[in-house]
TrEMBL record:
Superkingdom of origin organism: Bacteria
Native organism: Nocardioides simplex
Signal peptide positions (record): none
GO molecular-function terms, A-Z: acyltransferase activity, transferring groups other than amino-acyl groups
Protein name, per record: Uncharacterized protein
InterPro entries from the UniProt entry: Acyl_CoA_acyltransferase, BioF2-like_GNAT_dom, GNAT_dom, GNAT_N_AcTrfase_prd
Database matches in PROSITE patterns: GNAT (PS51186)
Length: 284
């Protein structure tokens, strides 16, 4: 079977999403990106996630800045900069799309566009961070894109004044996307890295964190080789309506998932029903 070039895979995903994606460097376009991010993260103009002048500098320095357009409307954007050593890795700092176009897989198309661009510019991997409590993002990053989780970062960005993070500590999971790895190539072609938590549990996987009937976190002793770590259905709704419960989940995930990764365990992937699948080493 002939494997399509990354640029062709990206073009197919972009066509399927019904948007146009292009790299950006004009100040008017970058101002539009700033406004889009303010709208998505609900920050307001006094606390933007990024400014147009910084985006302009990044683009001029050869970094990646792109926008997804539905007709004339900017509906998604993504930017990243190169990381050490040299230009071998691109760090993707912010990617976001309007909620109304998520079902059209605009985010997936943006990441495939970024993958093709990074490969054309000599990078073999892309890294980024995300909130490991947000279930849809966990599935997107570890399943749909087949990125690898590499490090748990407690309160990585410090306090962030927006309506998504609210007062919650900004714990993040750092992921690495090896752009030509077989699992990534398959995922970009439409076959995600899928794991079945129920089947793994039936085969002996141990649950280390799960939700109670009331929606709170239950931390359990876990001594097995394969460990399942659960996350709530909708942490963003919890932050809005029950900040105390959301904080309990943050602490529990930091203790369990953060502790496993610090101890040398590896995240194999994410079951879209809400489980991180973590594998301990033989010696653990």
């Amino acid at each position: 079977m002939t494997t399509l070039a990354p640029a062709d895979v990206a073009a197919a995903a972009i066509a399927a999403s019904g948007v146009e994606i292009r790299t950006l460097d004009a100040i008017a376009d970058l101002e539009a990106v700033r406004r889009l991010y303010e709208h998505i993260w609900r920050t307001g103009a006094r606390n933007p996630p990024i400014t147009a002048d910084l985006l302009r500098a990044l683009a001029k320095a050869g970094s990646y800045v792109s926008g997804a357009y539905d007709g004339d409307e900017l509906v998604g954007a993504c930017f990243g900069f190169f990381a050490a050593p040299g230009r071998e890795t691109l760090h993707s700092h912010i990617a976001g799309v309007l909620p109304r176009v998520r079902a059209r897989k605009v985010g997936f198309a943006l990441k495939l566009h970024q993958r093709a661009w990074a490969l054309e510019h000599g990078a073999g991997a892309v890294t980024w961070t995300y909130d490991p409590l947000i279930r849809r993002n966990s599935w997107f990053n570890l399943g749909k894109l087949a990125a690898d989780a590499v490090e748990y970062l407690p309160d990585f960005y410090g306090p962030m004044d927006d309506d998504i993070n609210r007062a919650d500590p900004t714990d993040r999971l750092l992921v690495r996307w090896p752009l030509l790895a077989p699992a990534v190539t398959d995922a970009c072609a439409g076959t995600p890295r899928a794991l079945e938590g129920a089947a793994l549990r039936a085969a002996g996987a141990v649950v280390a964190l799960e939700s109670s009937a009331a929606g709170g976190p239950i931390v359990r002793p876990s001594y097995g080789r394969t460990v399942l770590v659960g996350v709530p259905d909708d942490i963003e709704a919890l932050r809005e309506h029950d900040a105390s419960l959301a904080a309990q989940w943050r602490g529990a995930l930091r203790e369990v998932l953060g502790g496993l990764l610090a101890g040398g365990a590896q995240v194999r992937g994410f079951d879209r029903e809400g489980w991180y699948v973590v594998e301990r080493k033989e010696s653990q």
